[in-house]
Specification:
Helix content: 25-40%
Oligomer: single chain
GO cellular component, one term: membrane
Structural class: alpha/beta
Shape: globular
CATH class of the domain at 86-223 and 261-430: Alpha Beta
Low-confidence stretches: 1-14, 30-82, 435-440
CATH architecture of the domain at 86-223 and 261-430: Alpha-Beta Complex
Membrane topology: Single-pass type II membrane protein
Number of helices: 14
Keywords: Glycoprotein, Glycosyltransferase, Membrane, Transferase, Transmembrane, Transmembrane helix
Main location: membrane
Strand order of the largest sheet: 1-4-3-2-5-12
Largest sheet: 6 strands, mixed
Pfam families: Branch (PF02485)
């Protein structure tokens, strides 16, 4: 008599159709293991995943052996001496509608073949202006040969009182970290900034400084500022809309944080690569936590980096309380920088600052700075030892490049040296984020 039930229950393993998939799976697994072990697959970065985010005129570096933990270890290994050669600086120069020519002028004034540059026109600038800027960079023979200038093609909508400016800055830093391992400091500038010293002056003086110093103006937020800055909650429309609007306040208020102290200061900074790796790679949770906190914080560009660095034990003793800018504030109430003119020229020079802001477009004082401080003619680069061509007939001597590790410093280096000597000798306890750096004996040779 035939029993009812599952027909194959008596011989569950008699079907041999499972053997072929099992063998194929085993073969694939072995192949993958051998590929990983012997490096048969190339790095995914070789395909340039950021090609849709920016227009790059630099070759992508081979990052197949790049692993973040190895960089973290080398950053903190005191036995590693990677500071033999002269420093290199990475610049972000940003602007908005109508700023393309101003960005290019500032770029020429701060250009040096050793450095890296990334240019950003925000979303308010029309596509034609952005394309014209990118085209002018691409067709410039020096930029095309050196390949150290990039124009971000995917623009961000930037509301300067909200977190969108921080987001744009961090995006630029991430691109610079991916694209080049050869820079020591990062500087952010706007189209209304302009240098007061040549890059030869700057690089020469900073060759004598520790590469661990972060130049960031900062002070702890206390008293009435806590109620006006920390407790309100703002919304930045730039995070959600495609048209710029002013930030607006919600009716809710939040308590003060207890796990970190709040700091504020200038939005213009000169930060070390190691600190920015800490902010971008995120092996500690603090940068991410503060980034979320400052999403709804008024004027977050004046607080984010300041709060991160002053609440991190590894970096709080590396701060120099200055933004390296000369700024003349309105009086009263000293809340906004006023436009600089020829009347301010002597004070700018005497300050010893590296940069000044802010300037009106094509103000005559810029021509005076070019002529007397930078040795720059219209449409040309600021002079440096790397410029070995002839200036006959009005040609640009920088069209012919020499050794970019040689610097021809001048009076600007002496002024900057005096400012740094003063900053490093100041009382470290005068501000909340302590500075415990011994004064450095700077000598211009």
């Amino acid at each position: 008599m035939r029993k009812n039930g599952i027909p194959h229950s008596a011989r569950p393993f008699s079907d041999k159709r499972w053997k072929l998939p099992l063998f194929a799976s085993f073969l694939v697994s072995v192949t993958l293991f051998l590929a990983v072990a012997f490096g048969l697959f190339s790095s995914p970065s070789a395909g340039d995943p950021l090609s849709l985010d920016f227009i790059s005129y630099a070759r992508l570096e081979d990052s197949s052996d790049y692993f973040v933990e190895s960089d973290i270890k080398s950053s903190w290994d005191p036995d590693v001496d990677s500071r033999v050669e002269a420093p290199r600086i990475a610049y972000l120069i940003s602007g908005t509608k109508g700023d393309a020519q101003r960005i290019r002028r500032t770029l020429q004034a701060v250009y040096h073949p050793r450095n890296q540059y990334i240019l950003h026109l925000d979303f308010e600038a029309p596509p034609r202006e952005r394309i014209e800027l990118a085209t002018s960079i691409k067709t410039d023979p020096t930029f095309r040969e050196v390949e150290n200038v990039r124009v971000m093609a995917k623009s961000n909508l930037v509301t300067y009182k909200g977190p969108t400016m921080i987001a744009s800055t961090l995006q630029a830093v991430a691109i610079l970290l991916k694209e080049s391992a050869n820079w020591d400091w990062f500087i952010n500038l706007s189209a209304s900034d302009y240098p007061l010293v040549t890059q030869d002056d700057l690089l020469h003086v900073f060759s004598n400084l520790s590469r661990d110093l972060n130049f960031i103006e900062h002070t702890e937020i206390v008293g009435w500022k806590l109620n006006q800055r920390a407790k309100p909650i703002i919304i930045d429309p730039g995070l959600y809309l495609s048209k710029k609007f002013n930030v607006f306040w919600t009716s809710q208020r939040r308590p003060l944080p207890t796990s970190f102290k709040l700091f504020t200061g200038s939005a213009w900074v000169m930060l070390t690569r190691s600190f920015l790796e800490f902010c971008i790679w995120g092996w500690d949770n603090l940068p991410r936590t503060l980034l979320m906190y400052f999403t709804n914080f008024i004027s977050s560009p004046e607080s984010y980096f300041h709060t991160v660095i002053c609440n991190t034990e590894q970096f709080l003793n590396t701060t120099v309380n200055h933004d390296l800018h000369y700024i003349a504030w309105d009086n009263p109430p000293k809340q906004h920088p006023r436009y600089l003119t020829v009347k301010d020229f002597n004070k700018m020079v005497e300050s010893g600052a590296v940069f000044a802001r802010k300037f009106s477009k094509d103000d005559p004082v810029l021509d005076k700075i070019d002529r007397e401080l930078l040795g720059r003619s219209e449409g040309q680069f600021a002079r440096g030892a790397w410029c070995i061509g002839s200036s006959d007939g009005g040609s640009d001597p920088c069209s012919l490049r020499g050794d970019d590790s040689v610097f021809r410093h001048g009076p600007g280096a002496e002024r900057l040296q005096g400012l740094l000597q003063k900053l490093l000798a100041e009382d470290p306890h005068r501000n909340g984020c302590l500075l415990r750096v011994e004064p450095t004996n700077l000598t211009v040779h």
